[in-house]
């Protein structure tokens, strides 16, 4: 389904007076902040094709209704999100869960929904029905060359699917590792993985990037072959200029200083992309900003600082994507909340008085440095983000409109209450 434009217009009109008052007050308090509106309008966050349905945990899955059951329906759902917030204009595909059988048709659909294809994802963390060799003991690291060759061939096939859709990057996340001491020779696992990645890298089109995503643990619980940013950076440096590290917020050991990791990767020109989510314990894949919004702000503070220093365009310099799973919330409401949290952290980071912060740092004025950061963090930037959405044709309050327009009810009526998305 698509939302009638008039529904959005009527929603915005009903909230116009309240919005204007809040915005005027905000601009009075934050002089010059209207110059950030264009940056907010340009900033687009990729929605993963696996996050439109209920994910579940290893204990169970409690399905919602009206979930998309194929790629076309998933794209339609992202189109709905984008209509509401005008900040979700990209889709990150997963192969083989969402193989575009007819690329031209899929491209036309994307165009009609105003969507682009962000990084495309391979999958060697589970076996597929028609597969010759098993990934039970790893894929690119496997001791058996037949398994490694099969995993390399899959990644090259994924690149071809991506090329047909205008995607410009491949994300490789490996479940490879070991669950028990002695199971694996670390050095050989690294060398096998690097050799396999080199073969995939060689198949990248000239204008493509490869993102090497790391994760500390799970599904393996003793070692992971791309476990942290240091290991990812080792691979990326050895592979070449088209290889980058991808940071997934949920893939660190507890209390890791992610903002410092981001800063140094940017300094090295090796940060390629982001997977946003939030967590309290591990790779919880919760709504971005739901648990640690201050950390999200601190990360964006480093992103803005580092990208400005490197003269990178905020919107196009890195791949911005969500990687989340929804167990108890409506997936579309959850994604609207995640995008809103990301936009808030970005807007707050834009408000940081960088000149004053630099001066405070030079004087070792620790209290003042904290005052400056927290003044930005404690600013309610919602009127500014709402204004950016309004100017782009989105809704002033996306979740409110999602509910009042009865979007989920319409999707259930259209698709039924027992649907299940591919890959979930
Ligand atoms: Mn991820």
Give a verbal description of the structure.
It is a single chain. The protein has helices at 5-29, 37-42, 71-85, 103-113, 145-165, 186-202, 229-239, 258-267, 293-309, 331-351, 354-362, 366-377, 382-392, 398-404, 407-415; strands spanning 46-48, 90-92, 116-117, 120-121, 169-173, 177-178, 209-213, 223-224, 243-248, 271-276, 319-322. By secondary structure, the chain is of the alpha/beta class. It has a single domain (43-352), classed as TIM Barrel (Alpha-Beta Barrel). It has a 6-stranded parallel sheet. The chain has a 3-stranded parallel sheet with strand order 1-2-3, with no helix packed on it. β10 (271-276), α9 and β11 form a beta-alpha-beta unit. α1 (5-29) packs antiparallel against α13 (382-392). The chain is globular and about 65 Å long. The mean pLDDT is 97. Bound molecules: manganese (II) ion (MN).
Short account of what is shown:
By secondary structure, this protein is α/β, with parallel strands linked by helices. The protein is 48% helix and 9% strand.
